[in-house]
Amino acid sequence: MNILSCHCGAVELQIKLSDGFNTARRCDCSFCQKRGAPAVSVLLADLTVTRGQDNLSKYTWGSHTAQHFFCKTCGIYTHHQRRSNPNEYGVNLGAIAGVHLASFGDIPWLDGRNHPKDRS
């Protein structure tokens, strides 16, 4: 299990990564491009908010399938339920305790600008 928290400590999550850090990726969709935080995968059942559930704010748009969660106090993105796979969360890699993003080198990019669910 890993611990993830926002900057101010008001929100804390306990997570079990679905495949360690092998799922680390960045996305270039209109939202992730501006957010800039790489994410790793966690199954829905493997994420528990252990502190600050009432301090989380949710943002959705478009299909409202993806749900992005942030700390109301410090604004740090903690996790999101994915549109590409609503059965899993993407969690902020940089918010996991003990993680130093520079040690990951180049993190692969996902083409979120051309998402399959946007095609008719």
The residue fraction in helices comes out at under 10%
Oligomeric state of the chains present here: single chain
Give the helix/strand class.
mainly beta
Number of domains: 1
Give me the CATH architecture, please: Beta Complex
Shape call: globular
Work out the number of β strands: 11
Low-confidence stretches: none
- The CATH topology assignment is Metal Binding Protein, Guanine Nucleotide Exchange Factor, Chain A
Number of helices: 1
**Strand/helix succession:** EEEEHEEEEEEE
Major sheet characteristics: 5 strands, antiparallel
Level-1 CATH class name: Mainly Beta
Molecular structure report:
The protein is mainly beta. It has a single domain (2-118), classed as Metal Binding Protein, Guanine Nucleotide Exchange Factor, Chain A (Beta Complex), CATH 2.170.150. It has one helix at residues 30-35, and strands at residues 2-5, 12-15, 18-21, 26-27, 39-43, 47-51, 56-59, 67-71, 77-81, 88-92, 109-110. The strands form three sheets. A five-stranded antiparallel β-sheet has the order 5-10-9-8-7, with no helix packed on it. Strands 1-2-6 form a three-stranded antiparallel β-sheet, with no helix packed on it. Strand 1 and strand 2 form a beta hairpin. The model has no long low-confidence stretch (mean pLDDT 90).
